[in-house]
Design goal:
seven-stranded mixed sheet; 9 strands; transferase; MobA-like_NTP_Trfase; AdoCbi-P_Guanylyltransferase; Nucleotide-diphossugar_trans
Amino acid sequence: MDALIMAGGKGTRLNLNVEKPLLKILDKPMIDYIIGELLKSKINKIYIATSKHTPKTKKYLINKYNNNNKVIIVDTEGTDYIHDLNQCISYFSKPFMMLSCDIPSIKSKLINNIINYYNNINNKKEALCVVIEKNNYLGNPTLILNEYDKIPAGINILSPKQGCQTEEIYVVNEPLININTLKDKEIVENIFGGEYKKLNKK
């Protein structure tokens, strides 16, 4: 399975003079955390959609991943999330994983678990929407699926076709947070800081 990272949005909710994918979480841009975990997972190729709103992101990615044939940068118009996604559909001939660029706490183990789950149900459903229990969400959600009382995690598996798709919900308990505010950034940095301390105690 291939993956698509959506990294062409304006990121206006952060109200910072930095392109959202390049927002530094501790010591590195948050998009690098996502790419790093995807590279360690079962994902084959990683497509990253940039736009006119994220020219510095595109330049950074080209410079850093130029020698990695698994990472492919693609251009979109930057009109809106759905429009840009539809522009990327043609790159895929099989179901693919779509991720927003603002979930740096995602781990390769979870990515693999999502893929495995989808592979077991894809003869029944075309798409998979990853969600978090509302009561377990640590950040400041911008969207709540009231029908399920869950928070979308910014991770989906889609079939490469236009139009509506039959969908399954996949609930995770991991501390996934979409970084939309500085408070979200602080929470994720605290999570990462705790992980760093655990590693150094071993």
